Amino acid sequence: MMAIKTTKGDLLDVMSLQEQIDHIVFDYMDTSVRHEIAHEQLNELFTEVQQYFASYIMKNNGVLPDASTYWLMFVSCVSQLSYFLSITTFTTAQQSADKTQAVQYAELAVATLPQMKNEDDELLVDEMNEKYTALIEDETKMREVVASLATARNDVATSLRLFAHYVTQHTVTS
Q1: How many domains would you assign to the chain?
Q2: Which residues, in sequence order, are CB contacts of 61 under 8 Å at separation 6+?
């Protein structure tokens, strides 16, 4: 199990998390197509991030954190993890339940996309658009996800609320 480092203030080390995501994507998605390995490792990270956030909310009596640069970076990692997980879930899907899960990851990735309007952000949106158009078989669902890509740019607080909702719906125990 990969463990994401924490900071002195007991926060998840988002820089370390970002490095781990980049490393997995580079090694198993960009330079070699080994989506099973990427899926397994991304899933571990995603589970850890969910557990961390659920625990954070619990410690704070259900109160979500205030928007800050840290939480913007956190939510950006959540969006990327969800996106790459959606891709690896689609490409390694064995049953229709896997594809349903992949669509849920896709929806979460789009819902938590941060409001940054930089070149990397636009490249990611273009890539998501292309991948989801190709991978989501249900035409109506595909159109919904792709349409929301064009409009959905939630602020940090909204993204955190949507992720908190996702976490409560998909509780992961350690």
Answers
A1: 1
A2: none
Examine residue 9 and state whether it is found in any structural domain, yes or no: no
Give the contacts of 20 (CB within 8 A, at least 6 positions apart): 2, 4, 45
Range(s) of the domain holding residue 91: 14-169
In a domain, 2, yes or no: no
Average pLDDT over every residue of 145-162: 83
* Displacement of CA 173 from its chain's centroid (Å): 18
CB 154 within 8 A of CB 167: no
Give the span between the Cα atoms of 130 and 47, in whole angstroms. 26
Per-residue model confidence as pLDDT tens digits over 103-152: 999 999 988 887 665 666 677 788 888 898 888 888 888 888 888 877 76
Q: What is the mean pLDDT of residues 90-103?
A: 89
Residues 165, 112, 97, 41, Cα dihedral to 10° = -110
Amino acid occupying residue 168: T
